[in-house]
Amino acid sequence: MPSTSSSAHPAMKLLLIEDDPSMQTALQRALGRRGIGVTGCTDGRQALAQWSSSQPDVVVLDLSLPGMDGLQVLTQARSQGLVTPVLILTARGTVGDRIMGLNSGADDYLPKPFDLDELEARVRALHRRRVPAAREADPGGLQVVGGLSHDKDSGAIYHRGVVLDLTPRELALLQTLLAKPGHAVSKERLFAQVFPGEDNVQYEAIEVVVYRLRKKLAGTGVTLVTLRGLGYLLKIDA
Questions:
Q1: Do the domain assignments include residue 7?
Q2: Based on the domain organization, do 18 and 111 belong to the same domain?
Q3: Structurally, how many domains does the chain consist of?
Q4: Same domain, yes or no, for 71 and 140?
Q5: What is the four-CA torsion angle of 206, 207, 213, 217, rounded to 10 degrees?
Q6: Which residue, of 46, 61, 142, 188, has the greatest Cβ tally within 10 A?
Q7: Cβ(226)–Cβ(214) below 8 Å
Q8: Which residue blocks in the chain are alpha helix, DSSP H?
Q9: Same domain, 75 and 161
Q10: Distance between CA 217 and CA 15 in Å, rounded?
């Protein structure tokens, strides 16, 4: 991969939260040569403020930090609405630690020691999966509801910068509910949007789509609520 000089404007801004000075220096230099602008932070308590102020494209987060460990940093960041994709980088390699990290809001996990090429590939993959920069620069085309971001131009729906994996019917259902978040949408209207022109489909089929979508929305900051006799609505979690 061709190098990028330090005078060039990097295509990506990365926040590296790592308390090992030698590791931080090495990664800043190595990734900088590959066109990634790296800002370093060594303390967990300072990391949140740095994260919020620098608005990075990707965060690489070590779990073992002074003051506040990486999982606490990640949990607080997500509770504050910071949706930046996060790659956990740590010497803790057990499955339990990995699950804890992912459940706390991480998007990927790479144990130490690691290969620099693999780190770069994973970071760039997270960057590509973010909400497109044009939509972020044009909030009029981006609807945010809870932890979901709806790109009205493309129709795509994101959680933490990653496109939700939805079937066409689930997507049609969620888009219809997002048009009136917090308001009930009748089962009849949802059926017409999800099964347009499909007269051979049983009316109860909408309940199956609702059930599947509800499971996929777990942990996104919104809940699909059934209102008996009225229909369904999207509720932003407290």
A1: no
A2: yes
A3: 2
A4: no
A5: 130
A6: 61
A7: no
A8: 21-33, 44-54, 70-79, 95-103, 116-128, 133-137, 168-178, 187-194, 205-216
A9: no
A10: 28
User: Residues in the chain, how many?
Assistant: 238
Quick one: pLDDT at residue 137? 44
Supply the range of the domain harboring residue 216.
Answer: 133-236
Give the residue from 5, 4, 130 showing the smallest Cα distance to 57: 130
Which residues make beta-bridge pairs with 157? 150
In this structure, the answer to whether residues 152 and 167 fall within a common structural domain is: yes
Q: Residue 180 corresponds to which tokens in the numbers above?
A: 């009136």
Enter the tokens of residue 128.
């590509």
User: Is residue 13 classed as helix, strand or coil in its secondary structure?
Assistant: strand
| Gap between the Cα atoms of 127 and 20, Å rounded | 24
Window from 36-40, 95-99, 156-160, 168-172 with minimum mean pLDDT: 95-99
Burial (0-12, 13-18, 19+ Cβ within 10 Å), 87: buried
What confidence tens digit (pLDDT) does each residue in 100-147 have? Answer: 777 777 888 888 888 899 999 989 888 876 655 434 444 556 788 888
| Residue 227 lies inside a defined structural domain of this protein | yes
22 contacts: CB under 8 Å, gap ≥ 6: none
CATH number of the domain within which 187 lies: 1.10.10.10
